[in-house]
TrEMBL record:
Residues 45-92 form the F-box domain. It comes from the Eukaryota. This is F-box domain-containing protein. Gene3D superfamilies: 1.20.1280.50. PROSITE patterns: FBOX.
């Protein structure tokens, strides 16, 4: 209840007193005003800054979304500093990215708040990178309604497509650009002479490659199984796919 009242005060921009009789709340003994509206008008935003640290931390613990923090920060400069606190935004990033298949490769110099919005923008990107294609250990291969197999490291950084369970001969993969019916260019993946595969971004920030016949869906690896020189995208370290060791 205390949190709801406090947030109501924060989001109410009218802190001035109203004319007698216009407030729906009633005055109690000693002239105290009861009710959320009266409490909001009887206090300034700076009230939060005067709270004991323990109470303030308990209140801010409930601010779990960027919108919550934006509402808090819009009140005054003191609350803006609290809303922009790196630890609070780092916690929001961890919650947001926890279930993503591919963790965003956020530039390391960005503070957590900027990193959050950078990742949200990058999540709209539809052009698959070589790092994302070759950095996925496992791709589930489907033809029609059937799941045929799960390939381990099928897309190699040297341009080879390796699928001993399905194809018993060497193939090359490459990126190709093709225009759709509206003339918009799409970056696609072509394996051998088969029809190119369109890259589709999934809700977990993973990828799916599909054409009219087959579909590949990316699955996350175990970090301990990564080939030498290739990093798990979930780790906040650079990935040097040019150092791939094919013998690994």
């Amino acid at each position: 209840i205390f949190f709801r009242v406090t947030m109501s005060c924060i989001s109410d921009t009218d802190y001035s007193s109203t004319a007698a009789g216009s407030d729906s709340t009633a005055a109690g003994p000693g002239g105290a005003v009861h009710g959320t509206q009266g409490l909001c008008r009887s206090r300034s935003p700076a009230t939060l800054l005067r709270l004991p640290v323990e109470q303030l931390c308990e209140i801010l613990r409930f601010l779990e979304t960027p919108r919550d923090l934006d509402v808090l920060g819009a009140v005054n400069r003191g609350l803006r500093r609290m809303a922009d606190d790196d630890r609070r935004w780092a916690a929001i990033c961890r919650r947001r990215w926890a279930d993503w298949l591919v963790k965003p490769a956020v530039p390391p110099a960005l503070p957590p708040r900027e990193a959050y919005f950078w990742a949200e923008a990058d999540g709209q990107r539809m052009d698959l990178t070589m790092r994302e294609l070759c950095g996925m250990q496992s791709w589930v291969f489907e033809m029609g309604p059937e799941v045929l197999l799960r390939d381990e490291w099928p897309f190699r950084a040297d341009g080879r497509y390796y699928s001993p369970q399905f194809l018993h001969f060497d193939l090359q993969w490459r990126f190709v650009a093709q225009a759709d019916s509206e003339g918009k260019q799409h970056l696609m993946v072509q394996v051998g002479s088969f029809p190119p595969l369109l890259a589709i971004r999934l809700s977990n920030w993973g990828w799916q490659l599909c054409n009219g016949y087959v579909r590949f869906t990316a699955h996350l690896w175990n970090p301990d199984e990564a080939p030498a020189g290739l990093c798990n995208p979930a780790l906040e370290t650079p990935c040097h796919i040019t150092e791939w060791d094919d013998g690994a």
